[in-house]
Amino acid sequence: MAEQSPTERSEDTPVAAAAAAETSAPAQVTAAGDADMPAEAAEDDAAEKPTRGRPRKTAARKTRQVALTLTVTGSQDGADWQAEVVHGTTRVVPQLSVSAAAVVAAAKDLHPDIAEAIDGILETAREQHRTRVEQLQAELAAAQEALANLDGDSQA
């Protein structure tokens, strides 16, 4: 008789064949988590044990909400900004002056839509200020020219 390797000999015995079948077939895990019990038996057990009464309800979690209102108001020209914080009906922080840069930074941190709206308002205010600066520079140039003409007349 030819010599067999140890692995070939173990496959010939009935116990080894049954062990190989168990390891090659995946175990079925039921809802109860019992891997040894077939799925059909687990379904029979579930059908035999009806639940009594209503199923238990879990307590709904109530999330605590804090009602804080931050109000930021600005002047028409965009130069003066005020902020206040209200908790319920109590004014926690009264009207405080804040810079336009702080308003822009806060808006960017909150949401892009808020930042876009405030940037639009501030850009309009910047354009109004540029127009006013140009007008004042023209008036200043005219006043300086008039002063120079007056000084030139007095030296003559």
UniProtKB/TrEMBL annotation:
Pfam families named among the record's database cross-references: DUF6319
Keyword tags: Coiled coil
Basic and acidic residues composition-biased segments: 1-12
Record's keyword annotation contains Repeat: no
Coiled-coil region: 126-153
InterPro entries: DUF6319
Region (Disordered): 1-64
Biased composition range(s): Low complexity: 13-40
Biased composition (Basic residues): 52-64
Keyword Thylakoid (UniProt): no
Protein name according to UniProt: DUF6319 family protein
Origin species: Fodinicola feengrottensis
